[in-house]
Amino acid sequence: MGFTSQLLRLLSLTLTFFIALSSSISQSNQFCDAEAGAGAPSSKLLIKGGTVVNAHHQQVADVYIEDGIIVAIKPTITVGDEVTVIDATGKFVMPGGIDPHTHLEFEFMDTVTVDDFFSGQAAALAGGTTMHIDFVIPHKGSLTAGFEAYEMKAKKSCMDYGFHMAVTKWDETVSREMEIMVKEKGINSFKFFMAYKGALMINDELLLEGFKKCKSLGALAMVHAENGDAVDEGQKKMIELGITGPEGHALSRPAVLEAEATARAIRLADFVNTPLYVVHVMSIDAMEEIARARKSGQRVIGEPVASGLVLDESWLWHPDFETAAKYVMSPPIRKRGHDKALQAALSTGILQLVGTDHCAFNSTQKALGIDDFRKIPNGVNGIEERMHVVWDTMVESGQISVKDYVRLTSTECARIFNIYPRKGAILPGSDADIIILNPNSSFEITAKSHHSRLDTNVYEGRRGKGKIEVTIAGGRVVWENNELKVAPGTGRYIKMSPFSYLFDGIEKRDDFYLKSLQAPVKRAKSSS
């Protein structure tokens, strides 16, 4: 390491400060107390004696980390006194979670989500997630302006993150900006909203243009799949019937509208021959459309979210508005039975990974729609809870293995967005983003103890087995002994390259299609 690098590292370590966040800190000032000089993290760590789990292999081994990178995984590693040793005997050592679907500091429905790129990421780290991918929303249709705004928002980040980009209009400028995003800005996915009429929603013409552009750039097309026109009609109908409370939200956008949009997006993606990613799959109806497409050989990724896996819509009928409103999200949480079906689809490979759609609005913000459910800001929490909820629901029940857990919460996301094996693996050369989970410990989720700025929690009172006791991000121990030690500005933007494995062989399918046309037919010209 050169003198300049050493000096920069020394300055970084000297200036690093930690914010200790415990469950006893009140929600109002949870992220306001900075403790300077709490000690610099060791650049050398040894995780001793744990069961190291990757998506396709597990073994009892030691893991040696230096300068934020995994150096070695061996049955026994001997180190000197300068190395910090963490005993993981009897525990699982796994890649940190990657949340593919979040909305931090998101301006939506005349308000802004309460979790920004510091508080949301701090909460994520406490829950074992070490990277997330957030959605950049264009500014007045401009992708470049939107990206620059999110760059500013993310300056306070305390863990690694990437960006998806939404597309909300179409013209030649947007087309050129998509190229810039992929080739220069490290974005390899674009989201198209088929809902939120009058705000973010796009039509089929734009969807087709967007899909074609994504294919040419090797970028993954993503859709929020609900029929926005029909939802708009459903909302008007509920209001006419005098149904103005949170239950009207679910009633106005039934599962059939999610399925219709999912099917439409799948067929248009098949027409263009480009891979498709369906975000927050919430219903049996949408899941079955994905299953049908995948069975036919189409490349479709289905992402359920934690709330859809474990909650049901009955909460929306709760007599207390504040309680009911906190469960309002889109697509809605469905009737009991959809949750179990989505779990089964996840365990059998029909659905591929788990996100959260973390979009946190507090009770005051939710109250904007106290007289009209259409004005309730849509969104629930999950960035801190996902890893525990999935472990307890899927692993403890025997539906998936520990290796499957790693795949569904980390590895598959890294593969889809082309950052594997830098992320999503415990391998030599991978980033040292690691969690240590004690399968014999228990957890409880409450708004009083969580680390989000949110004053409610849709998983309130949930208890389960399997507790993440240590989170290591970039080689730094950031969560241990129920204490967070994080510093704003320490997170890194992770650029994601185009043409992930989902694009392998796409051109051959195009060639096969062209050869199958038997056209144009050569016809003799009429002599008359």
TrEMBL record:
GO cellular component, one term: cytosol
Domain of life: Eukaryota
Hydrolase in keyword set: yes
Keywords: Hydrolase, Metal-binding, Signal, Zinc
EC nos: 3.5.2.2
Position of the signal peptide: 1-22
Start and end residues of each Amidohydrolase-related domain: 92-478
Cofactor(s) listed: Zn(2+)
GO molecular function terms noted in the UniProt entry: dihydropyrimidinase activity; metal ion binding
CDD domains referenced in this protein's UniProt entry, alphabetically: D-HYD
UniProt PTM: Carbamylation allows a single lysine to coordinate two divalent metal cations.
Annotated GO biological process: pyrimidine nucleobase catabolic process
N6-carboxylysine sites (modified residues): 191
Catalytic activity: 5,6-dihydrouracil + H2O = 3-(carbamoylamino)propanoate + H(+)
Pfam families hit by this protein: Amidohydro_1
Gene3D superfamilies registered for this protein in UniProt: Metal-dependent hydrolases, Urease, subunit C, domain 1
InterPro entries per record: Amidohydro-rel, Hydantoinase/dihydroPyrase, Metal-dep_hydrolase_composite, Metal_Hydrolase, Metallo-dep_Hydrolases_sf
Family from the record: Belongs to the metallo-dependent hydrolases superfamily. Hydantoinase/dihydropyrimidinase family.
Subunit structure: Homotetramer.
Protein name: dihydropyrimidinase
Species assigned in the record: Vigna unguiculata (Cowpea)
